[in-house]
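Intended use. Records like the one below are meant for learning the mapping from a protein sequence to its folded structure. Do not use them to infer anything beyond what is encoded.
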Amino acid sequence: MKRNFFRMYWKQRYLQCLVLIGIVYLAIFSYLPMFGLLMAFKKYSITSGISGIFTSEWVGLKYFVEFVTDYKFFTLIKNTLLLSVLKLVFTFPAPILLAVLLNEVRIPLFKRIVQTASYLPYFISWVIVAGFITLFFSSTNGVVNDLLIALKIVNEPIQFMTSPKYFLWIAVFSAIWKDTGWWAIIFLAAITSIDQTMYEAAEIDGASRLLKIWHITLPGIKSTVTVVLILALGNLLGGGLSGSNFEQSFLLGNPGNIDASEIIQTYVLKVGLSEGRYSYSTAVGLMQSFISVLLIFTSNFFSKKITGEGLF
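Structure written out for the chain above:
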């Protein structure tokens, strides 16, 4: 048996090398840095170097308690949850709807054009997207404000970029524009795996397109939707399906909208790098990661109870 295993491994040696590269990457950039989590429980100073991670004085849960009792705690939690939940509510159904609509298109060329155009924004950096948004929504010569004034909808420019009440919606709809097409690919792949004879049988029975979508397409991709939803809930505080909350908040945030744009991740960057409080910022980041792990297990548990399907 061992001989067969090594023979098979040797036949797949080139593919195994590709897998090995991925394993090395994860080991260096994902697992090795986990030793730094010790800083959350120690009085670490940057002057002590890497060895200080292991030799610094233990302080237990001091920094966790400090964060929970910080006056910014509830504001940070509110902003993080509000942005994350809004993005989940609006961005999760969007790729499913797009995939279903594309599946119903009967003109192959039009279908390919729409699909390509929809997922191209995914490859645009958030830095560039933030630049576009700033230009479009600027109060001085911004396209949106110029259009609103030209149509006499408003009399003076709206402060989109410096008002907390507009930040959340700009972040949500920019995330929909950027990531919907990419995630739709997964649901389109799930739709193509559905047995086509079911559609043929439904058509013979006189079912309309809407009935076929409701009774065949959506149930057929239920397992894929469940898995993606669990993953999205696990990364809820980080941005769910639609990229990183940090990038949007950091790039679109400013002193004018800080009441809505400052979240846990930007706070970690500020206190960690700007103020040099590495142990405290590590504790805050670890707390967010712990909540994310709980969300994964909780969502998986309820998914199994309700639908009978889950990740594990």
